[in-house]
Known about the structure:
The complex is a heterodimer.
Chain A: E1 2-5, H1 6-20, E2 24-27, H2 43-51, E3 52-53, H3 59-71, E4 75-79, H4 90-97, H5 100-103, E5 113-118, H6 133-137, E6 143-145, H7 150-162, E7 167-172, E8 179-182, E9 195-198, E10 203-207, H8 211-224, E11 229-233, E12 236-238, H9 242-252, E13 255-262, H10 267-278, E14 288-292, H11 301-307, H12 311-323
Parallel strand pairs in A: 2-3, 2-4, 4-5, 5-7, 6-7, 10-11, 10-13, 13-14
Antiparallel strand pairs in A: 1-8, 6-12, 9-11
Helix pairs in contact in A: 1-7, 3-4, 8-12, 9-10
Chain B: H1 12-37, H2 52-59, E1 67-69, H3 75-80, H4 85-92, H5 125-139, E2 146-151, H6 158-169, E3 174-180, E4 183-184, E5 187-188, H7 198-204, E6 209-213, H8 217-232, E7 238-243, H9 261-268, H10 272-282, H11 287-310
Parallel strand pairs in B: 1-2, 2-3, 3-7, 6-7
Antiparallel strand pairs in B: 4-5
Helix pairs in contact in B: 1-2, 1-10, 1-11, 2-8, 4-11, 5-6
The complex binds thiamine diphosphate and magnesium ion.
Thiamine diphosphate binds near residues 72, 73, 121, 153 and 183 of chain B.
Amino acid sequence: MATLTYAEAGKQALAEEMRRDPLVWAVGEDLGRGGVFGQYKGMVEEFGPLRISDAPISEAAILGSAVGAAMTGTRPVVEMRFADFALCAVDELINQAAKARYMFGGQTKVPLVVREPMGMWRSSAAQHSQSLEGWYTHIPGLVVVCPSTPADNKGLLKTAIRSDDPVVYFEHKNIWGLEGEVPDGDVTIPFGVARTAREGRDITIVSWSATVHAATKAAETLAGDGIEAEVIDLRTLWPWDREAVFASVAKTGRLIVAHEAVQVGGFGAEVAATVGEHCFKMLKAPVRRLGSPRVPIAYAPPLEDMLRITPDKIADAARALVKS
Amino acid sequence: MPATSVPRNLDVDRLLSHHRLMWRIRAFEEAALQANTEKLVLGAIHPSIGQEGIAVGVCSNLNRDDILSSTHRGHGHTLAKGADAGAMMRELLGREGGTSHGKGGSMHIADFTVGMLGANGVVAANIHITAGAAHAIKLRGENRVACSIFGDGAINRGPFLEGLNWAKVFELPALFVCEDNGFASTTRTAAMTGGPGPAARAEALGVPAVEVDGNDVLAVDEATREAVVAIRAGGGPRFIVAKTYRLTGHTASDPAAYRPKDEVDAAWRDDPIARLAQTLADAGVKGMTLAENERVAKDEMDGVYADAKAAPWPPLSRGYEDVQDAGDPRQGAF
Ligand SMILES: Cc1ncc(C[n+]2csc(CCOP(=O)(O)OP(=O)(O)O)c2C)c(N)n1
Ligand SMILES: [Mg+2]
């Protein structure tokens, strides 16, 4: 075990995979100087500029060429810099990467990882703050990963790189510096297995990415009020661990799904609907979703903060559900 | 009838092989049109009749392990790269035994066993895919070439700029071929294209470009040969613009009423197959031999069509296959 930040854990995962497999390579803008968040720092020195490759500001070409490179026997890891900029490469991801295996009748697979730094940090406004993970869960062919801890960022990135599916890999910008214990060496985490961040018997809070930390803080506050909340970190949204959620709801009878993305049409709706379909008789209260209002993200801190899913908001919602 | 250009060392066997392959493409397209008339082709098809010289001239310079990616108008390219005509026709008819088990149709025909990374339903998308294949070839230190054939309409989409620039800055072994048939769907491409055209755009990105008469299969063959030699020698990407004309509508159901009859008649007098036949006749090849090439190709494609008609639909289990490894695609199924 070592204490690493979330960013360092991702770097360690990529470096280990690149040492293990010479066909793994990374490409994106400014990677040669460590990437805009330092998550590639020092890597070009070890692996050289062919495998830690700079790219022109051509998101569509970064992703589109990765599709061709993945179909030609390499395993590209592409850096989109901000999840918002990946929207310049939607055709390449949705129409090409996600579809090739199926529409070519299984003749090829597209083993690529798209790293998309997501979410709000501070005053980055409408085009540098979005959480769009829910969109990608809608697309057959894609895997969607949203790690919340350094250990998960290492284990899941390793699994993503070894996966033969195209993986959309969302790292949250607000927790790049978050420290945590990370297992040494070759430890991978499978897709579709949730992590119970905290156990409890009164209410289940399902979350992922940075919002998991708001949920665990809320759970600590609630414990002071005698409410024991169980916090489930989904870690991957496709595939997602329905069984873990069902089992927790069977125990607690109450569910909140909390995420930073806009609530309308978010992945929380999928979780809520699935629990409604499968666990109706176990529920003691209506399922509650907590997500951002359907408003672009503002620059001024008070307006930005208004949109955040905070521990207080989660705790308030939990108290109301337990009372009802 | 104008002939083709005549190379210095006329290799009659190579020309005859071009002639046979051009007829195979034409006969495949005619069989596909017949299938369309009989309502057995289920989706849109885009015939390449009149453009066979480009498919044959380009692909005859590619090895089996070289990469090709194509467009919606991809039957000719795919055949010329060596794909199985029977599997292709079954795919057009949506049948089991098609190249994609009937899951892709005409616009998603691919044959990875011959390095054919697919037709594509999105104009210009194959430019990036080829740039990436070339990138992989370079990373792996192989001496292969990746080629992309696309239309003149594709040069107005972003991938033309981004993909050619990409291939140039990484000095990739990529060949880009623009089939300039003057039209993008029902619109004359020139009316929607600023500046002096595709070659100038490629040159501006540092990619050496040549223009050839795409209906002169020997000119395409020669231009491609030179480009591929330069690419294999590590010279980076090359660009070829091949002028041609599509002799049918944009799709099998497009009567192409937007083109004057005399323009189309003139184009038929420039038919690339007839031009090659003229060159071969001038070189002393007997008319009988040329007629035989045509007959053999038509017989083959008649057989291919009959076989495809007899093939079954894919079983429903195919519908859930090859989605992805992770997760269960049947989740939430009926
Ligand atoms: C991105 C995109 N836009 C529009 C279309 C619809 N479309 C299909 S083929 C075509 C014309 C393409 O013209 P060109 O590239 O010159 O190829 P050609 O059909 O002449 O072979 C269009 C507009 C498409 N398939 N993809
Ligand atoms: Mg055209």
